[in-house]
Amino acid sequence: MKKIIALLVAFVAISCNDSKAQQTSFSKEALKETLANTQDQQIAFQDILKKHEGKTVVIEVWASWCGDCIKAMPKLKELQATHPDVDYVFISMDKTADKWKAGIEKHDLKGDHYMANDQMKGVFANAIDLDWIPRYIVVDKTGKIALYRAIETDFDKINATLASLK
């Protein structure tokens, strides 16, 4: 009986993760939410995506205090070197703009940078089902989400997704 319950729990957990992984568009709530840019202006997420229309985009949700985010940065830089034709958008979950901007500089992150206004438990985080950082989302040239949920151990999956979109 315990084995059956354990299998059922595992199936439900996998099913929940798969449903998040298969999402192909952002919710209206996510699209309307504003994020701060490095000039302290508020920009709607839909306008950030619009800026990259016609391009494949890798979105990384991260924070300067996140050990797993920092540990994944060499893999991210490798990804950028392998896929230079892809646009990279970084969305920080930092609590202060000073720490966020210092993190961008310290880690020499190349791409467009934004910061969520209400961090990990806020509107934007909830709207994208954020449960872990770093979190990677791949958006194809048509604006459709090709990979909704990848974490720091999923770079093979991210590379495969990007290769399939060429």
How does the SSE layout of this entry go?
Layout: H1 2-21, H2 28-32, E1 34-37, E2 42-44, H3 45-51, E3 57-62, H4 67-82, E4 87-92, H5 97-106, E5 112-116, H6 123-127, E6 135-139, E7 145-150, H7 155-164
Parallel strand pairs: 3-4, 4-5
Antiparallel strand pairs: 1-2, 1-5, 3-6, 6-7
Give me some keywords for this one.
single chain, about 170 residues, alpha/beta, Glutaredoxin, 7-stranded mixed sheet, 7 helices, about 20% strand, globular, disordered N terminus
Helix content: 40-55%
The SSE string, one letter per element, is HHEEHEHEHEHEEH
Tally of strands: 7
Please give the radius of gyration in angstroms.
16 Å
Strand content range: 15-25%
CATH architecture: 3-Layer(aba) Sandwich
> Briefly, what CATH class?
Alpha Beta
Sketch the major β-sheet: 7 strands, mixed
Give the structural class: alpha/beta
User: Kindly state the mean pLDDT as a whole number?
Assistant: 89
Count of distinct structural domains = 1
Give the neighbour order of strands across the main sheet: 2-1-5-4-3-6-7
Kindly report the CATH topology.
Glutaredoxin
CATH superfamily: Glutaredoxin
Q: Are there runs of 5+ residues with pLDDT below 50, and where?
A: 2-21
The termini sit apart by 48 Å
Protein name: TlpA disulfide reductase family protein
Keywords: Cytochrome c-type biogenesis, Disulfide bond, Redox-active center, Signal
InterPro entries: Thioredoxin-like_fold, Thioredoxin-like_sf, Thioredoxin_domain, Thioredoxin_ResA/DsbE_sf
Subcellular location: Cell envelope
